[in-house]
């Protein structure tokens, strides 16, 4: 098992370096030459060169990338062109808000999806099954930012139950979490249903029933536990989409998270902030994916056995 | 007499076992799926609306022409979906907007298909170090949340409809690389591929003529489902101000404009959102149907 973890950690390094290079290269194209906009029209060529060196923009793309990675390893993401603040500090200030939103999103999604998926599978081809699947299909097809706007319209403006935006108190996170969580819930409902349908046909469930185990226990203890593995996989893969989706929800609800930071920085062409936030977010996604894979190996004894041999 | 009967039964058997094309096969299965047929009809109607909109509407007058006297009128018999903040008819803009959304969705998927299939098929066929490099690049692309990836590409290339298509396409490439590679790996060692190799057919021709047509079904499923997500991704970027530039009637940018007036003129956000949902819903219903039609577990 330790060898598996070590192998996965080693495999992570080239991917992380590649991710950082890709984002760095894309943002380098986007930036053009920011030195001129910072230096102003009256700057002499000498002043421009001094400023270029000061901003760390001298040298080829590869040289700058190597320098960037060196700084990144020391926890330095550079300084914002606009606010002149340390990008790492700003990122770490925003990150807890995004993680709070992502966590509640996951809770909302699982809370909706698991009961719906189980009901649909247990009552296959019934009206409950059809309703769950139609709801899931609608959830998958609805753009989440539009759902966010509809939620604001109904629950904030009409009923006044939740604020329209901001980050004050628990009430302000509920609507953004439902906004991001609905499409994830839709996907998880479908996965839970199909995974449960596969498990429900297994012989060991028939044996459990024959031994007199109550139907509730058959579903909860025997079926759901075995159906969990594909659900966990989808859950892990979707963490990236949750962070992506939160960019939109953070914009709609003025939630001060990382997504909002990126969108604002793009508007202001603040390249160090965009690059830093994207690199850090992608690293976060990659590490979460690794953790999910490890949980997956831990939950499934077959995978665990493969690596403990 | 007996010979005639034998001939007839042989003919029947030949007819029965006549090799059907993949598309014919999908259609036979699809016809039995009500949801897929509803999806297909809906998407055909939306495509027809998109294609015919220049004949039904005058772009300069009905779609982008401003009429301040008519601004922010609620839905009525004159303006079924109401008018926006510049007095433009929302129904006309929603109808014309179908052209942008469908075009962006389809072209983005073609971009993803072109990159994804070329790289995936080559990786699966060539194998070795090349395959390793391609798959690691694929891992890198998969690690970046697709919305953030598309945002980064658009901000690098600049805001335009073409760049939006390219950005969404690039952000959707990784799944196609995986599908194409997996499909090629399955077919790679089939006898007919070995035979083609033995008669000296060049590798690119073997991939193009023998391997890709046999992976078509998985690629069709992936493409149909991806058009829907590409449409949503494009609308998301337009909503953030990074998509189709104004005054073009893109659904995402219409929602972004409507957001400012949501308190008093909620219909401005209702109809463009419904249009996106209906289009993606029909594509998902059709895509699900095609996937079920190709799933051997569900085949009768």
TrEMBL record, chain A:
Where is it found, in Gene Ontology cellular component terms?
plasma membrane
Q: Which GO terms describe its biological process?
A: transmembrane transport
Cross-referenced PROSITE patterns: ABC_TM1 (PS50928)
Q: Where in the cell is it found?
A: Cell membrane
Q: Which InterPro entries match?
A: BPD_transp_1_N (IPR045621), MetI-like (IPR000515), MetI-like_sf (IPR035906)
Main localization of the protein? membrane
Q: How does it sit in the membrane?
A: Multi-pass membrane protein
The ABC transmembrane type-1 domain sits at: 95-296
Q: Where are the transmembrane segments?
A: 9-27, 101-122, 134-157, 169-188, 227-255, 275-299
Q: Which UniProt keywords apply?
A: Cell membrane, Membrane, Transmembrane, Transmembrane helix, Transport
Q: Which CDD domains did the record assign?
A: TM_PBP2 (cd06261)
Q: Hey, which family's this protein in?
A: Belongs to the binding-protein-dependent transport system permease family.
Q: What is this protein called?
A: ABC-type dipeptide/oligopeptide/nickel transport system, permease component
Q: Which organism is it from?
A: Flexilinea flocculi
The record lists the lineage as: Bacteria, Bacillati, Chloroflexota, Anaerolineae, Anaerolineales
TrEMBL record, chain B:
Q: Which PANTHER family match?
A: D,D-DIPEPTIDE TRANSPORT SYSTEM PERMEASE PROTEIN DDPC-RELATED, OLIGOPEPTIDE TRANSPORT SYSTEM PERMEASE PROTEIN APPC
This chain's source organism reads Flexilinea flocculi
Q: Does the keyword tRNA processing apply?
A: no
Which residue range or ranges hold the ABC transmembrane type-1 domain? Answer: 98-287
Membrane topology per the record?
A: Multi-pass membrane protein
UniProt entry keywords in alphabetical sequence: Cell membrane, Membrane, Transmembrane, Transmembrane helix, Transport
Question: What GO biological process terms does the UniProt entry carry, in alphabetical order?
Answer: transmembrane transport
Q: Which GO terms describe its cellular component?
A: plasma membrane
Taxon lineage: Bacteria, Bacillati, Chloroflexota, Anaerolineae, Anaerolineales
Q: What is its main location?
A: membrane
Domain of life, source organism? Bacteria
What's the short name of a Pfam family annotated to this entry? OppC_N
Which family does the record claim for this protein? Belongs to the binding-protein-dependent transport system permease family.
Transmembrane regions = 36-57, 100-125, 137-158, 164-187, 227-245, 265-287
UniProt subcellular location: Cell membrane
Q: What is this protein called?
A: ABC-type dipeptide/oligopeptide/nickel transport system, permease component
